[in-house]
Amino acid sequence: MALLAEALGLRGDGVERFHRLARNTAAAPSPTDADPPLGEAPDTARRRPVSAAPIGRAGLIDHVSAALLDVPAITGGPRLVVLAGGPGSGKTAVATHVAAHLRDHFPDGQYYVDAADADPELLVDRVSRSFGIEPACGPATFEDRAMRLRAVLRDRRALLVLDNVFDEAQLRPLLAADDDAACAIIAVSWRRLSAIVGVRTIPVPPLDPGSAADLFIAAGRRPVNAGDRDTIAWLTLQCDHLPLAVWIAGTKAADRPHISLQRQAERLRQPASRLNRLVVGDRSVRASFGNYYRRLDPPQQRAFRLMGTVDVPSFPAWAAAATLDVPLDEAEELLDRLVETNLFEVAGTDETGTVRYRLPSLLRAFAQEVSQHDDSAKARRSALRRAVTAWYVLSEIAERALSGSVPRPAIPIRLGGHWAVTDLVQGDPTAWLRSERQALSMVLRQAGRAGIAMRDSDTPPAGRHVRTGQHDDHVNGHTNGHANGRVNGHRRAHG
Description:
Elements: H1 2-7, H2 13-23, H3 42-47, H4 58-70, E1 79-85, H5 91-101, E2 110-114, H6 120-130, H7 142-155, E3 159-165, H8 172-175, E4 184-189, E5 200-204, H9 209-220, H10 228-238, H11 243-255, H12 261-267, H13 271-277, E6 279-280, E7 283-284, H14 285-293, H15 298-308, E8 315-316, H16 317-324, H17 328-340, E9 345-349, E10 355-358, H18 361-374, H19 377-403, H20 420-427, H21 429-449, H22 471-479
Helix pairs in contact: 4-5, 6-7, 9-10, 9-11, 10-12, 13-18, 15-17, 15-18, 16-17, 16-19, 19-20, 19-21, 20-21, 21-22
């Protein structure tokens, strides 16, 4: 193998990876594994074999490759494409496979530099070392070093993969140039980096269900019969179809052939313990999530934690405003920033035209775990109470509107400091109840399990009949049909 590695022109980490793959050719590579960077002479680089594209990513790799060749230079500097995606989505693997795919277009080499924890000055020095730029004989200012690097980027037909890019400031010293540069850059980031004018950003989403199943089977390296397909589909769904989570689950299945797939799926059923299961060796879904969470500012971290404690499939911004006890405009801004960092998702628009947000199940489990550590029990309980009160009070407003009685009750929670939300409910109460039926039912049940009873101070006069134990009657009364424009089956509890 040593002779073959030498004949292939492998160097450094490439030799180690070649030996590892040769020892276990049936193993599916981790979705975040990357081909080692290429910095050798062009003839050596062309002889190096290219591994197969990550499962389910061939189309994305072709798309990114075409974009990188077509995208215009940024302000006269290198061509730039940003790959943005959530934790565990396999962004780095896509970027390095694009680099390998396009190596004939960049004959001066492909380079990989980790931008994690690097300020702009440190990143310039890292890239300069990768390109073999010798340090200046005497002291050199940051701008002098950046100019020397840009001169190299202008002349070399090379492709640079910058991994773990935090923000736009890291890239700007590389992009400023008077002339078009021959070099191109793929920036792998948690954000879209939209502050760079003209940037081309391509999202890296989770896998589709079929590709997630294929990745699990490839990583599992065990015979799969037709009866296993449904179990694998359910198991990968618990992994949110994230490549890292699916690969870890499949690898553990390969390491534990004595445990049936059904039992392994059962072990992932409980969200609270799911993150404990998704660990193999030094690879961990929790650690990947933690790297993203630590990059958030304190208000974003608080929003992430507390919205994770509200266990609903999706929610509107007014629910976040109530849960976080902030104005509606501030809640919308927080949610949109969390979407930009690929921690929250936009679930779509409901029947009332309201945008809904969602927290994928693994990230919700992580948010709850962090909240248990960082937030007091009182803070978590208060957040849930505010969420329950918001949904319940607005359901009372919808009931009043359906019954023809629409005076506005006093609302002791923040819904943006204005009546836009209640106007929305009163405008089409039936559509609002249909949109909120599942969330309202789930949040009231969650309140019941937590022992949170609706007190007089929490609800408007028409809602003061509710006590723990009657929550489901209330929501069912609202949502089990609206014959002739009124709510049927509404049971009132007195006492």
